[in-house]
Amino acid sequence: MSDVFEKCRSWKDYRIAKATGLYPYYRAIEESYGATEVQIEGRRIIMVGSNNYLGLSADPRVKEAAIKAVERYGTTCSGSRLLNGTLALHEELEQRLAKFLNREAAVVISTGFQTNLALSSILGRHDIVFADRQNHASLVDGIRLSFATERKFRHNDLEHLEQLLQQAAEKEPKAGKIIITDGVFSMEGDVCNLPRIVELAQKYGARVMTDDAHAMGVLGEQGRGTSEYFGLEKETDLVMGTFSKSFASLGGVLAGPSDVINYIRHKSRSVIFSASMTPASIASALKALEIIEAEPQRRARLLDIAEKMHNGFRAMGFDTGVSVTPVVPVHIGDQVKCFRFWKALHEAGVFANPVIPPAVEAGHALIRTSYMATHTDEQLDRVLDIFEQIGKKLDVIPQTRPSTYTPVQIARPGTMVRNNKASEKWAAASEGQNGHNGFTLDQLSRMSSREVAGKLFDAVETLTWRAANLQPEDIRKLGQVPMKLWEKRANIPGILLEKGASFFIRNGQHEDRS
């Protein structure tokens, strides 16, 4: 009889990552210095891994609002919105957000993730959801929890979306239809093609929803997000946002037609069976909204910073992909090298986030950086210097800067840009075409003992990681591997070390050419 816990005991990723010193997650922040710097393990480091885009989590006005709310209402509402958990503050925030977003009504929910789960309440058996393949996991789960049929279209591929819509119109003409997409995609920083999505929605009788978690407070003249940025607020039926980013709090909002929002209030499990936003969270979001409306210069500064960092990285030879926003991904490629890059950054005093498959395509591992309006030029220059040093050391960028590079046009109000043209390297990685074919014996014979030792260390580290975290290219190659060798895969790192040690003993008398 199998044990439901067996999968937990046999899961090796965590132990291997810890053993190799490449475990990047759950780093405890001990103290925060104005949000742009934090203390971890007693060291003060620059934070470029936060979604606190406007830097408001450290704003004295926001903190004071949270403190006053706790003094007035206590620390929690101790119940759901439906019963005892609705405060006057909740209603004020909803009214203010509906007005800010130019919608009839809005409902605030305890977390951003739960906000997208609330979608399941309006998606029925006879509905079809057309979803971008790179939508956030909360959208994926919200759709999955419903009884609706999901049809995924390739990322930002609107020809594929139209094919799916046309098929649905022919085969299921009576089905309700909605197109759901991220506004700004959280890993790669590009913007959805909302104008074309709206055009297709009108042609095929579909509704439109944008998840503006990374766009609200950032895009548009007033910071209202993707639909304002494209001038399509009336054509976008539902908009979702989170408070854990530009709003310096915790929670989420869905805004749209009043009858839809009212239905969600009374039917969504994530609303009626979950404790409501805390007084401090509501008050923080309210004060942040007030600042967002009153201080557009914060958005301008944020976009200036995004341009500086994109082009600073590109000038060194780094690839920041398709992003045109303050989400600035730095392409690394191999996931083990990505973790090594992250570790070197951390040790040098920069907090960033490594992103590996399945969050991105195989061969597409990247360091995700994101910026705040409150970062100083001195901090940003320091980050660029550290990236350049590590990039050269790990052979991610050339030793000499390229003579030219293509600058990035940022998604400023009125520009209507959606993405930066993908480089060949980025495109190849997205299609899973990156990889290293290894070294020939002739190449190895020309290396010094030190160089071979370095390559051997890289191979053992990579094999150890991949033994616990198989990649699609590994699986594709399984048919080419003799079964006996595959059965001994767990012993390969040890065998390599043993053979390598023997090699160095036999060749120790040779002159080191390093």
Structure commentary:
The chain has 514 residues and is α/β, with parallel strands linked by helices. The chain has 21 helices and 14 strands. Strands 4-10-9-8-7-5-6 form a seven-stranded mixed beta sheet, with helices on both faces. Strands 1-2-3-12 form a four-stranded mixed beta sheet. β2 and β3 (43-47) form a beta hairpin. α13 packs parallel to α15 and α14 crosses α15 (377-393). The radius of gyration is 25 Å and the shape is globular. The chain starts with 5 loop residues before the first helix and ends in an 8-residue tail after the last helix.
Helix- and strand-based class? alpha/beta
- The largest sheet has its strands arranged as 4-10-9-8-7-5-6
Shape call: globular
Low-confidence stretches: 504-514
Radius of gyration: 25 Å
Number of strands: 14
Distance between the termini: 57 Å
Helix content: 40-55%
What is the residue-averaged pLDDT?
88
SSE diagram, text form:
Blueprint: H1 6-10, H2 13-19, E1 31-33, E2 37-40, E3 43-47, H3 60-73, H4 88-100, E4 105-109, H5 112-117, E5 127-132, H6 137-144, E6 149-153, H7 158-171, E7 176-182, H8 194-204, E8 207-211, H9 226-229, E9 238-242, E10 252-256, H10 258-267, H11 269-272, H12 279-294, H13 297-316, E11 327-333, H14 335-348, E12 350-351, E13 353-355, E14 365-370, H15 377-393, H16 424-430, H17 441-445, H18 449-468, H19 472-477, H20 483-487, H21 492-506
Parallel strand pairs: 3-12, 5-6, 5-7, 7-8, 8-9
Antiparallel strand pairs: 1-2, 2-3, 4-10, 9-10, 11-14, 13-14
